[in-house]
Structure prediction request, 262 residues.
Amino acid sequence: MPGKLENQVAIVTGGNSGIGKATALLFASEGAKVGLMARREKEGIDVENAIKSDGGEALFVSCDVGNRQQVDDAVGKVVSAYGGLDILFNNAGGGDRGNFPDETDEGWERVISVNLTGTFYMSRAVWPHMVKGGGGRIVNNSSVAAQRGFSKKMYDLVGRGPSASYYAAKAGVDAFTRYAAGMGGQHNIRVNGVRPGQIITPLTDVGGGHHSFEAMFDMIQILDGPGYAEDVANVVLFLVTDESRFITGEIINVDGGMPGKL
Prediction:
């Protein structure tokens, strides 16, 4: 039985680890040819080889999504290898350990670059290929940080909060998602997003499957946590298949349920 993404071409940024890796493996299992983009080459090649060993098709391209030339070159390599492009998952991201007002200029610029500027660069680079192909699907990885704040008690439970740069970058991703969806409608390009919450990945796991902000999340979650990368990957898959054909401009929370929003 053909997979849900049979003969389609997908790019996953940050595809060498965590949510990106889980999504790349899932896309490949559903028949997609997957272009993997990330900065860490060894891990990226490991994911490429894992997909190929299961009979799938994958190509790793080293790329810093905050560098426009690298983005344009990497997208070109994937399109050249597979003859087109149908799907983009803008997953690459990360935060900074600094807290306002003590965050550094360098930390702010780095976080904005990888999360927000990278999403813009990648979307712009794939856009003409999707238009040429008659349509496409883009999913942007945001965060619950884009729509929630935190109290003094929540801060004290962890001893710190997420960086201001991360909050600002992910709010920007949300806004860009809505904007790009509006621009994409005339070209049959659907643009949606996901907002992960307490999701265990190599970057968030502080040991034993515990999230670095576990105490904060546990206080406000409806369901017992944590979630895992595969939980997010499953939602991303839904958003890039015809099962979600009438959905665009939406951002789905994958956070165990949180009863309060600012």
In short: Strands lie at 9-13, 33-38, 57-62, 87-90, 136-141, 189-196, 199-200, 227-228, 251-254. Residues 200 and 243 are 27 Å apart (CA to CA).
